[in-house]
Structures are given as structure tokens and as C-alpha cells.
């Protein structure tokens, strides 16, 4: 065994789902397909040192501070993917990560984090196992990232990304994500803003593992999975035609459905805060009064992703956010991102 110490580093962005993944089967198989926007600026930068030949162990640092819990999670993950990377347990790792966005923002650091780790692993794999095409290597990184955190597999590609088998998306798979074809996307969706309003900075009251698990006993789960599959039909048409009004309706419905599912779980979870509802109502009032395309989506938390295209009215929308919406955040925080592709 001739592997020596290697150091690699990679960067991976987070993503925000438009059609949501909530509910899964064994081996990280999603109960329904999902589609997301990759957030260009919310990234995890990871460097990985591999000391070949030493006893398998993992040490992790987040922004310079040692994270023992995270290291345990990564150890378990590495054991889990040994069947795909036979060399993986044959050495010691020191992994240092930092996020370019606040930890408390509710922006999925597990997506960018596992995306970056999977990319680092593929870089090491290239050193050890020889070359694969860029395309194959990305696909395998997406496959590996999925086994760490489902939604992470969508972070390997820029733009709009689909994970989960859908009749509407050629080449889609439950095992890895695929890029939604640029030629099928109207320009309005290629230059989009996502501003995250930091409503609440506390710990999430439900982990996504527990959340997905609650779908197993949710009496509405099957109906929801079918709805998500069905939503790919209008989504495909909307992405092609640029029908922003229909897009808004679909994306907001998906966000509210995710939260409705949690409210109907046993035990029930309400992850929105007062501020979340206030902001949603203000967005709806603003749209009713101005007709401008400002809308929202939510992750499994209280913070609100404000979405709007750069289609001429963005200055008015930004002014509204800065004056009317920022007061509802705990520490007046907003993380600004722009999805350009
Ligand atoms: O990837 P996980 O297991 O953390 O699940 C994420 C689920 C949501 O973020 C709520 C929705 C999604 O599709 O990203």
C-alpha cells in the first residue's frame, strides 16, 4: 500500500429547494424528487489532510475550533461509504472547514459541508485510483454527498438542480443529482436573488433526520409525495415559459406544505416564529399592492428566504426589504446571495 500523506481542499455552495424533499427511505433514497437553486455565495471551504497508513480516525475543526460531535458523524459516514472508496479507512484525517455564511442562518451547512467533503474525497480518490472524467467524478461526488446529507447531492452543480427520479427530467436519479438543462430555463430564472432574513438564531427544534422520520407515520405523507412528483409537470412548463406568477404560487405552496407536514406530524413541530408569519403577510400585502415579484421559500426553520428576479423592479423590492422587513429579524440580519448562471 503506497499511499502517502495528501492534503486537498475544496469549496462547495449550499442550496435552497423549490420543490422540497421531506421524507426518505433506507439508504438515503428520497420519497419524492426535488429541485433546488444552488446558492452561489453561501459556501463551505474544506481542507482535508489524509495521513495514509495510520489508524483510522477523524479530527474536525470548524473555523479553527475542534468539533468532536462532527468528527463522530464524519467517522460514521466514512465507514458507511467504504464500499465505494476502498482506501477510505486506511488512514487518519484532519478536516478543517469554514462557512462563508453565519452558522445560525439556517442556511444548510450540512449541504455545503457534505458537498465539500465529498469533493475532497473524490480528489483523493483521483490521486489513488487514477483518473475519471470530470463528469463521472462530479456524479460520484454527488452520490457520496447524498449518503452524508440527502440535499447535499444537489450542491455539486450550479444553477437549478434535480435530485430524485422524475418522469419530467431526463437522466434524473434517486442516487445522485443532475443539473436541470440550461436550455430549458427561461432567462428570468438565471439571474435571481435569494436574501435570507435571519428571523431566529436559536437551535432548530427538529433535526432533519427526525423530520424525515416523522413522515413515516404522517397520514398525509403519501399524498404529499405524489403532490411533489406532480408538481414537476407545471414546474417544467414554468421554467421554460418564464411564467413568474405561476412560479411564485408553486414555490410558496411547496414551502408552506413542508411546514404543514411538520405541523401534522406526531409529535407536531411548528418551526415558524411570529416574525416568519409577519414577514410572509407583509410580502403578500406588498405583492397585492405593487404586483412586484417578491416571494418566499422556507427551509426547516424560521428564517425566510426572500426570492426575486433581477427583472427591472429589484431596486423597489430591495428598498421594501430594507425598510419594512428587516425590523422583523432578531439582530437585523440578512444574508444576500445572487444565483447567476
Ligand atoms: O438533506 P437533509 O436531510 O438535511 O434534508 C433537507 C430537507 C429540506 O432542506 C427541508 C428540504 C430540501 O429539499 O432541501
From TrEMBL:
Q: Which EC class is the enzyme in? A: lyase
Residue ranges of the Mvd1 C-terminal domain? 196-325
Domain of life, source organism: Bacteria
Q: Where is the Diphosphomevalonate decarboxylase-like N-terminal domain?
A: 13-168
Q: What keywords would UniProt list here?
A: ATP-binding, Lipid biosynthesis, Lipid metabolism, Lyase, Nucleotide-binding
Q: Does the keyword ATP-binding apply?
A: yes
**InterPro entries the record matches:** GHMP_kinase_C_sf, Mev_decarb, MVD-like_N, Mvd1_C, Ribosomal_Su5_D2-typ_SF, Ribsml_uS5_D2-typ_fold_subgr
What Enzyme Commission number does this protein have?
A: 4.1.1.33
What are the GO MF terms of this UniProt record? diphosphomevalonate decarboxylase activity
Protein's recorded name: Diphosphomevalonate decarboxylase
Q: What taxonomic lineage is listed for the species of origin?
A: Bacteria, Pseudomonadati, Bacteroidota, Flavobacteriia, Flavobacteriales
Amino acid at each position: 500500500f503506497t499511499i502517502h500523506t495528501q492534503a486537498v481542499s475544496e469549496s462547495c455552495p449550499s442550496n435552497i429547494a423549490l420543490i422540497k424533499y421531506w421524507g426518505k427511505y433506507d439508504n438515503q433514497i428520497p420519497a419524492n424528487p426535488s429541485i433546488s437553486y444552488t446558492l452561489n455565495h453561501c459556501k463551505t471551504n474544506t481542507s482535508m489532510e489524509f495521513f495514509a497508513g495510520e489508524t483510522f480516525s477523524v479530527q474536525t475543526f470548524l473555523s479553527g475550533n475542534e468539533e468532536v460531535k462532527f468528527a463522530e458523524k464524519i467517522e460514521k459516514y466514512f465507514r458507511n461509504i467504504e464500499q465505494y472508496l476502498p482506501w477510505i479507512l486506511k488512514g487518519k484525517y484532519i478536516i478543517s472547514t469554514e462557512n462563508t455564511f453565519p452558522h445560525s442562518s439556517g442556511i444548510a451547512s450540512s449541504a455545503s459541508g457534505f458537498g465539500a467533503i465529498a469533493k475532497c474525497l473524490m480528489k483523493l480518490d483521483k490521486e489513488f485510483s487514477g483518473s475519471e472524467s470530470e463528469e463521472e467524478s462530479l456524479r460520484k461526488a454527488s452520490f457520496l454527498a447524498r449518503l452524508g446529507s440527502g440535499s447535499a447531492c444537489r450542491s455539486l452543480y450550479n444553477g437549478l438542480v434535480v435530485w430524485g427520479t422524475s418522469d419530467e427530467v431526463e437522466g434524473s436519479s434517486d442516487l445522485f443529482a443532475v443539473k436541470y438543462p440550461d436550455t430549458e430555463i427561461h432567462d428570468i430564472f438565471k439571474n435571481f436573488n435569494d436574501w435570507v432574513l435571519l428571523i431566529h438564531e436559536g437551535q432548530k427544534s427538529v433535526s432533519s433526520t427526525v423530520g424525515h422520520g416523522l413522515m413515516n407515520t404522517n397520514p398525509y405523507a403519501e399524498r404529499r409525495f405524489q403532490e411533489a412528483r406532480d408538481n414537476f409537470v407545471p414546474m417544467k412548463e414554468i421554467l421554460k415559459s418564464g411564467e413568474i406568477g405561476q412560479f411564485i404560487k408553486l414555490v410558496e405552496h411547496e414551502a408552506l406544505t413542508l411546514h404543514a407536514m411538520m405541523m401534522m406530524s406526531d409529535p407536531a413541530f411548528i418551526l415558524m416564529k411570529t416574525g416568519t408569519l409577519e414577514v410572509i403577510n407583509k410580502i403578500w400585502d406588498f405583492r397585492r399592492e405593487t404586483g412586484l415579484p417578491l416571494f418566499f421559500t422556507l427551509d426547516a426553520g424560521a428564517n425566510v428566504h426572500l426570492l426575486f428576479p433581477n427583472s427591472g423592479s429589484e431596486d423597489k423590492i430591495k428598498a421594501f426589504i430594507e425598510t419594512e422587513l428587516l425590523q422583523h429579524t432578531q439582530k437585523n440580519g440578512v444574508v444576500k446571495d445572487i444565483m447567476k448562471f
